[in-house]
Amino acid sequence: MLIRSPKYLVSLALIGLVTLFAVACTGGDADTANTDEPTPVPAATEAPEPTSEPEPTSRPRPKVTVTPTPEPEGTAVSESESVTFYLQAFNSIGRGEYVDAERTFTTVVELEPGFARGWDGRGQALMLQGKYEEALRDFDKAIELKPNLSVAYANRSLTRIAINDIEGAERDARRAFELDENSVASHLVLGRVYAREGDTTTALEWFDLAITTDPEDPSTWWWRGRFYRDVLGAGNAALDDFNQAIELAPAQAALYLDRAQLYIQANVEPELARADLDEAISLSQDPKLPSIIERAEELIVVLDERAAAIQ
């Protein structure tokens, strides 16, 4: 039996990272535009990377059109209870139950230790909990077992972005893109890399390609919205993207937090900013998201101080 990773899982990982990155990327004074990079956390101790094909000598630029490419064949898995656990773990990620997903994926890899997608799945569950060092080890294992597994490179690139390993993130994103030109995660990571280097034109091409590839994925609009806001200072374009992301994922607290910060940075629409912050706090109650709640409360204080200064 061939098991393929459901397409939505990468989207789940990306939107899950909205919550992880939102506060890390919005520290500091709310009146000051931030850079488009997450706050560095201690670097993970990485296992040696498996040998792979030589990297190209030049970095890729996004293509004008998206050419559909066949999804790589999945890893063969026997029809056993491991398949049931595998699907249960995906469902747990969809519900935001990352600890349960980790435990269930652990059962999968114990039953099928040669199943690369099982290791990749557990890596995603770990990544979404902020357990980056452990996630890297699982992605390394998945790639060791299946060197052409694009999603594992893409997920490892996202993890490396989270720990500020920009060179490693770029390397993995390039490899993911080589294997699958429709890898949205690779588009977003490469956009982030070019933005960091000051090549905003190429960065925007990558973010645009991510949206063209999967316009129904709210995280693509969120990543580009943050780029517009924090790098280009294009408030109206950022607002349009945040609005689209919220329309697609109205239950994501971090999206309201980012839109509220846009209002606050632009010093406009204080009532809309307050409404978004209240909504972010409300959506962060179950499951509890302390970092989102704390940041939203900090921004409410900023609004209160501004209101008091006007009176």
From TrEMBL:
Supply the Gene3D superfamilies for this chain.
Tetratricopeptide repeat domain
UniProt xrefs under Pfam families:
TPR_1, TPR_16
Region (Disordered) residue spans: 32-79
Q: Name the InterPro entries for this protein.
A: TPR-like_helical_dom_sf, TPR_rpt, Ycf3
Q: Where is the signal peptide?
A: 1-24
Q: Which UniProt keywords apply?
A: Repeat, Signal, TPR repeat
Cite the repeat ranges for TPR.
116-149, 184-217
Which stretches are tagged as biased composition: Low complexity? 63-75
Please give the PANTHER family that the UniProt record associates with this protein.
Answer: TETRATRICOPEPTIDE REPEAT PROTEIN 6, UDP-N-ACETYLGLUCOSAMINE--PEPTIDE N-ACETYLGLUCOSAMINYLTRANSFERASE SPINDLY-RELATED
In Swiss-Prot or TrEMBL terms, this protein is called Tetratricopeptide repeat protein
